[in-house]
Amino acid sequence: MSITTLLMTSILIFVALGISKSQKIHLEKEMVIGIIRAIVQLSLIGLVLTYIFEIDNRIVTTVILMLMVYNASRVATKRGKNKEELKKVAFFSIFAGTAIPMSVLIITGAIEYVPSQVIPVSGMVIGNAMVALGLTFKQLHDNFTSNFYEIEIKLALGATERVASIHLIRDSIRTGMQPIVDSMQTLGIVQLPGMMTGLILAGQSPVLAIKYQIMVTFMLLSAVAITTSIGAFATYRKYFTEEKQVKRI
Amino acid sequence: MLLFEMRNISVKINNTNIIKNLSLTIRKGEFINIIGPSGSGKSTLLRLFNRLSSISSGEIYYCGKNLNETNPISLRKEVGYVFQKPYLFGEKAKENLEYPLSIHNIYLEKDYIFNMLRQLNLEQDILEKDCENLSGGEQQRICLLRTLMLKPKVLLLDEITSSLDPVNTKIVEEFIVNIYNEFDVTIVLVTHNIQQAKRMGKRTIFLEKGEILEDAETNSYFTGNKKEQINRFFDK
After folding, report:
1. Domain boundary assignment for chain B
2. Which sequence spans correspond to the domains of chain A?
3. Does domain B30-51+72-235 have CATH number 3.40.50.300?
4. Quick check: B72 and A243 CB within 8 A?
5. What residues in chain A have their Cβ under 8 A from chain B's Cβ atoms?
6. Do the Cβ atoms of B110 and B156 come closer than 8 Å?
7. CB-based contact A103:A96 (threshold 8 Å)
8. Which secondary-structure segment (H or E) carries B7?
9. What's the complex ipTM?
10. pLDDT tens track, chain A, 249 positions
11. Model-level pTM?
């Protein structure tokens, strides 16, 4: 795609701005800022990625991946309470949720540990893990707040913290995993995912694109399952005191 | 035998003294009422016995052992607590009776449960009913039974009849008295109702602003000269 063609597609921006203006949605300013940010951020990351792909250094690649995990853990906890405490859990959960499936992909030879392959694939994993973990944390907090009395009754019956709240932990994990499970069920019917679309647009055969997409689906499913499970099980204890009392946060 | 001993305990929540320098002993086999106006610290005091709440200072001993050194889980198995507001979890009523048994790996004879249900004026088929279809009175009776599944040595009852009508209150009161007479159990009952206290425990502790104003035989509250505060409470 040429720059001219890209510029011509920008006419679509004015469609959105026109709707916002005529319907008094008052999003014009945010839209313009969003568009500028998207162009600047993507251009910068394009330059950075070009440089990283060129130097092809494993240490630099690993540092980039760690930075991505760190940023994702900050975003996943931004709406929760006790952010500092949650950030450590979030970092470890997303790290494990990324490292395990990525290791499987590398060991099985599906991808190589080179920046041009590891960074974009990890980006997909980390992004999905981040969203799932944010949902899990929120659901866990809502569950503990709305089921406070039930947990206390169970503790009074001599239940451990885990036994008293296991159904709430499981519900939180389920909530975190639900979007990826739902999207799996509509793959190919409702949506053609970004990676598959990208490969097809880049001239690869649909068969190869589908193979990669199936691999990505497996990877995302395991990443989200690992991240949400570790996140929920590592977090639920903060809702209890050392004396096995449930506390309001 | 001394079951509980509280030595100069205080409870402070959000910089407010709920319990102030309180000392108290409870002997095995006693049936004690704790009465007092709202906010006097009755429920907080009750929650301390099975570590649902914690003391800010002082010491509590259970069977001669510092409560802080006991495992809260085994303590709560022995020291049962029934809450003021009836709350059943799960779908069917029976899940509530199965829960304490399953978490402690206890097998209980069905006859024990059926006998309890009979005493509580409940039919056996209530176990198969959906919790949400039970009346408040039925729910509270199941809550009481849920705690009794563990055959606790101590039964802590926190205003358990406050949301019940007179008929259900009478059933629950008679049941508790039967339990006390039939089993080797110590009971501590928190109540707002002085007439209920008269019908229930032999010893009554009057609490106001986190302090014990009176600790005497229940009958003496109706015959002896009482402090002004207690009379005011009675007048209500």
Report:
1. 30-51+72-235
2. 1-55, 57-246
3. yes
4. yes
5. 149-150, 152-160, 163, 241, 243-245
6. no
7. no
8. strand B2-13
9. 0.93
10. 788 888 888 889 999 999 999 988 889 999 999 999 999 989 998 899 899 999 999 999 999 999 999 999 998 887 666 677 889 999 999 999 999 999 999 999 989 999 988 998 999 999 999 999 999 999 999 999 999 999 999 999 999 999 999 999 999 999 999 999 988 888 777 767 777 788 888 888 888 888 888 888 899 999 999 999 999 999 999 999 999 999 988
11. 0.86
